[in-house]
Structures are given as C-alpha cells and as structure tokens.
Specification:
By secondary structure, the protein is mainly alpha-helical. 91% of the residues lie in helices and 0% in strands. It contains two helices and no strands.
C-alpha cells in the first residue's frame, strides 16, 4: 500500500513539473519579434563594421602610409 502511494505521487509531480518547465520556456509573440529584430540588427551592424574596416579604413591607412614615406 505504501509503495503504491509513493509511486503514484512521484508520477503525478513529475508530470506537473514537466508541464511547468515546458510553459516556462514559451515566449510571447512580441518577445520573439523583438529578439529576432535584435539578432538581425546585431548581424547587420557586424557586417557593416567588417565592410567599413575592409573598404574604408584599410585603403585610407595605406594611402596615409604612402604619403608619409
């Protein structure tokens, strides 16, 4: 009798805990859109920094080195 009661309690609490964990990881649509926008913004800014470094800064530093040499 005691064994049946404890196994029943453990099964029930495990299911409730699994539902709680599953619900805790859900985000609202507004949060998902904001996080996606933030990720895309960081990606675009990163690409822009790489572009500026390759296209603008390197040629100007080479040109400056030729003038001073």
């Amino acid at each position: 009798m005691i064994w049946d009661m404890t196994s029943y309690q453990n099964r029930g609490s495990g299911r409730r805990m699994a539902k709680f964990i599953h619900r805790a990881t859900q985000f609202s649509l507004q949060t998902k859109v904001f996080l996606m926008f933030l990720a895309l913004l960081l990606f675009v800014l990163g690409c822009f920094i790489v572009y500026v470094n390759i296209v603008v800064i390197r040629p100007s530093s080479r040109k400056r080195n030729r003038i001073h040499s």
